[in-house]
Amino acid sequence: MRLATVRLVNAVFYAHHGVMEEEHRIGGRYEVDVAMTLDVREAAEGDDLSKTVDYEKVYALVREVVTGNSSYLIERVAWRIAEAVGEAYPAVAEVEVTVRKPNPPVGGPCDRAEVAVRHAP
Questions:
Q1: Rounded to whole angstroms, how far apart are CA atoms 86 and 64?
Q2: 80: containing domain
Q3: pLDDT per residue over 6-49, tens digit each?
Q4: How far apart are CA 25 and CA 9, in angstroms?
Q5: Which of 9, 16, 62, 85 has the fewest CB within 10 Å, making it most exposed?
Q6: What would the pLDDT profile of 45-81 be if each residue is shown by its tens digit?
Q7: Measured in Å, how far apart are the chain's first and last C-alpha atoms?
Q8: Which pLDDT value is given to residue 20?
Q9: 51, burial (CB in 10 Å: exposed 0-12, middle 13-18, buried 19+)
């Protein structure tokens, strides 16, 4: 077994999540990281994309989850991404999804709110 981590880092989307009405109406920027741990031995030895995760397809899956629905919590967004990746790629032993909301409405200066969800399908 040759475990490796395949990552998408800082995928950026415009979506409508949050607990405040303005967040749903106006929308905002969301940043997503996805780290997928899996055995890459066959993919590496055979130089075969079909034996690993296709991160272009993972990006499309993430975009669909982030922009296709509205949620109150970024926890839900991260959870749904992790579940979708696990369902699409059963060979993934663990997936970690981080969702960031830059400049969250917290009543003062704050760079970002973020949540990381780890899921072992």
A1: 15
A2: 3-119
A3: 999 999 999 999 888 888 888 899 999 999 999 999 999 999 99
A4: 27
A5: 9
A6: 999 999 999 999 999 999 999 999 899 999 999 999 9
A7: 18
A8: 85
A9: middle
Q: Return mean pLDDT, the chain.
A: 94
What is the pTM for the complete model shown?
A: 0.93
pLDDT at 67: 96
Structural domain count, the chain:
1
**DSSP β-bridge partners for residue 5:** 37
**CATH code, 81:** 3.30.1130.10
Residue 101 annotated as catalytic: yes
Name the residue with tokens 């969702």.
Answer: 99
DSSP string, the chain: --EEEEEEEEEEEEE--SSSHHHHHH-EEEEEEEEEEEE-HHHHHHT-GGGS--HHHHHHHHHHHHHH---S-HHHHHHHHHHHHHHH-TTEEEEEEEEEEES--SSS--SEEEEEEEE--
pLDDT at site 68: 94
Please state, as a whole number, how many other Cβ atoms lie within 10 Å of the Cβ of residue 3. Answer: 11
The tokens describing 108, both together, are 């003062």
